[in-house]
Structures are given as structure tokens and as C-alpha cells.
Amino acid sequence: MQFLCKEYQDGNPRVRGLVTDTRIHLVPSLNPDGYELAHEAGSELGNWALGHWTEEGFDLFENFPDLASALWAAEERRLVPHQFPNHHIPIPEHYLSEDAAVAVETRAVMAWMDKNPFVLGANLQGGEKLVSFPFDTARPSSPTPAAAPCPPDYEDEHPELQETPDHAVFRWLAISYASAHLTMSETFRGGCHAQDVTDAMGIVQGAKWHPRAGSMNDFSYLHTNCLELSIYLGCDKFPHESELQQEWENNKESLLTFMEQIHRGIKGVVTDQQGEPIANATIVVGGINHNVRTASGGDYWRILNPGEYRVSARAEGYNPSVKTCHVLYDIGATQCNFVLSRSNWKRIREIMAMNGNRPIRRVVPGRPMTPRERLRLRMRL
Questions:
Q1: Do 270 and 132 belong to one domain?
Q2: pLDDT at site 145
Q3: What is the C-alpha separation between 134 and 162, in angstroms, rounded?
């Protein structure tokens, strides 16, 4: 935060462009109570572990709704996407009840995500030196379609990996951070506490490395438009003050590069023919089975790798619009706006509702209609 403010005031063109063109939200600590407890205990002899949980005893990173298992169960029953969405999956009702085992911090973060149309996010952690991306949940090897989704068996040494539809985008985002880090991709020394799990790249899918259900990364991807990753800044989870300057130098360029990736892909506004913005319109990218929605102002952002994409915008009561959007290698999202025309189906539904939703009589060829039937048919048509 100090760096961004100082460099902005000093006229650094890179920082000025980033701050001017990007809404940056910073949360110093998701678990301030736990951090205070760990700070008082000190970092020696692993006392930092005292701050892993909240005062109520919750591990925040595993306290979010497990929407991935619900999605996979719906896929097995062939309910996606007509009866079960592939994006913006609603939070289960039992999870929102007052007596649910949910931390107050978790509830606050979920409300914060629903309030702001985030597009890219990262939660910063320690104890390792790598970037982890979704899915963090391991898919059950033999799901039962008729039964409720059960949590995966994480004792299995080889859990089944399920890649997200945005797997290639997540890999790029992870590589953009790891490659700009001064030492993260130098995996020839091995991992911090064990052998290297990143295939010498400094990045790993969460389910392959440390499978867990209910992570913030999976929840963010399936409930919002936001692509979220976990960034483990260094091996020491609680570095001494004398080491902070070097840790900052290790991560400074990576943090800037990662934030700049928000401007890669496509962006635009969805409006009607009168120029009014359409909120909650669905943006569908061909070949990627995960959609996003427009914000209250009809605007959207969709991070994509370079290439040519067939993109469509859809909204209730409007005819869909389709166009081809090109994403270039340079930073700078491609503008792809959509203008939707009103659909006749909305008016048809209104007319049907006025007539009690009674179906129009089907005309049987060869059978003459009575004058009364002909008049009734003309009135309904």
C-alpha cells in the first residue's frame, strides 16, 4: 500500500496507470484475531500455528460452501446447465442459517463478494513458495447420482483431479506471478518442507497438492465472476522484521504483474436498443463451459488467454447477440459491447398469462373448425 501511494505521487507511469484504470481492494488480514495471538506467541518453535484458526476455532480457508461437489453431482444427473447453473451457483440455504457452523469472517467475505463485482483475486499466505489455483476440491472417484454429494476421501494418495473450464487461464495467471518472483520458479532446491510438487514451475493445482473442500478459491470461482488464486509468498510463515525487506523485493514485481493481468481478455457493456444497461446478462464464451454476468451498470470483464473467441450475450426477455472477439498478447482488454433487442417471447408470455396460460388449440389438418372455434383461435393469435 505504501509502495502504490508513494510511486503514484512520484509520477511512476506504471503505477499511475494501474491505480487509475483498476479498482484495487486490499484486505490486510482476514483473521486479525488469530494473527494477534500468533504475534504475541512469537514465531519460534512453530508458535505461528496458533493463529491459523479464528477465535471461534474455524479454519477460514475451508469454511466456505462446497459448491464444486454440488456442481459435479448435478453434472452426473445431467442437470447442467438447464436446471443447475455452471456459474453463480447459489449458496445452500442451510449454510445461511444462523446456527450454521460458519465464521463471522466467512459471512463478511461472502457478503463483500456479493456486493462488489470482483474479477481477479489472490489470498496471500505463507509457509510455502508457490501459487495454487482451483479446483482445490478433489472430485469423488465414484459419485452416486441419486445420492447427495459426499466429501471426497482426502486420505487417497491419488485423488481424482477435476480441472476448471478456465484451467488454461488459471495456469497463465499463476505463471505470471511465479515467473516474476525472484526465487519461486527456482525449484531445483526442492520445496520448502518436502520435494517439489510444482513440476519445476512454481505453480500447482490445489487438489493435486493439498486437496480440501470449501476453499475460498473454489467458492469465488463458482459463486462470482472472480478468478481467485492462493499465493504462498515464502517458506517462512512468520519472517522476522530483518527479513521483510528481502521478502518484499522477492514479491514486488510479481504483485504488480499479477494485478496487471486483470486487463487481459475482453470487456464491454451490454445495453438494450435504447442504450440502457442490462444487469445480470450472461456472457458465454464458446469452448469454455463457465459463464459470467454483467454488473449493475451492464459492464463485464472476462479474463482470457490470447486467441479468437465466439462470444454471446444473453438476458431474460431479449434476443441473444453473438460476435467474434479477438484477444491479443499485449496487456489491454479487447472491447466487446453488445446491444440486445427485446424478444417477442416476453410479450407472448404476458398474453398467455392474461388468458390464464391456456394453450392455443392445435389445428388438426382435414378437420373443419366451427365458427366459434375459428373466432376463438383468431382472438388468441
A1: no
A2: 46
A3: 9
pLDDT computed for residue 327 by the predictor:
96
Q: What are the DSSP E strand ranges found in 226-320? A: 227-234, 265-272, 282-285, 292-293, 299-303, 307-314
**Edge to edge, what strands does the sheet with 128-133 contain?**
120-125, 227-234, 128-133, 203-205
d(CA 42, CA 314): 54
Apex 373 CA angle, 367 and 376, nearest 5: 140
Considering the domain boundaries, does residue 284 fall inside one? yes
d(CA 184, CA 176): 11
pLDDT in tens, 67-84: 999 999 999 999 998 899
Sites in the chain below the pLDDT cut of 50: 143-147, 153-157
- Gap between the Cα atoms of 153 and 156, Å rounded: 6
Q: Do 69 and 202 reside in the same domain of the chain?
A: yes
pLDDT at position 146, please? 46
Query: Which residue has 485423488 as its cell numbers?
Result: 159
Cβ atoms of 326 and 308 within 8 Å: the answer is yes
Q: Is the dihedral of CA 90, 94, 96, 102 positive or negative?
A: negative
Whole-prediction pTM: 0.85
As for how many domains the chain has, the answer is 2
Task: List C-alpha distances in Å: 251 to 33, 130, 202.
Answer: 25, 11, 13
Q: Which of 178, 200, 181 is nearest to 189 (CA)?
A: 200
The 10 Å Cβ neighbour count of residue 14 is 10
